[in-house]
Design a protein that fits this description.
This protein is about 20% helix and about 25% strand. The protein has one helix and three strands; from the N terminus they run H-E-E-E. Strands 1-2-3 form a three-stranded antiparallel sheet, with helices on one face.
Length: about 60
């Protein structure tokens, strides 16, 4: 993911945390917003990273 493709609603620290979770889905990555754990889900053409805390950090990437 390039930083140009990321919405401006994320800070650099949040982007780094989401990228870390995408690269290492089984590792524990802490949410920089609230300190909760980031969760990872994968589908055939998409991935999602979100915080376990409701209405906190959430991002997804879809492909073709």
């Amino acid at each position: 993911m390039t930083h140009e493709q990321v919405s401006i609603e994320f800070t650099e620290t949040e982007i780094q945390a989401m990228e870390a979770k995408i690269q290492n889905p089984k590792e524990i990555v802490i949410c920089p917003r609230c300190g909760g754990r980031l969760l990872f889900r994968e589908w055939p053409t998409a991935v999602e990273v979100r915080c376990e805390t409701e209405n906190c950090l959430h991002g997804s990437i879809r492909g073709i």
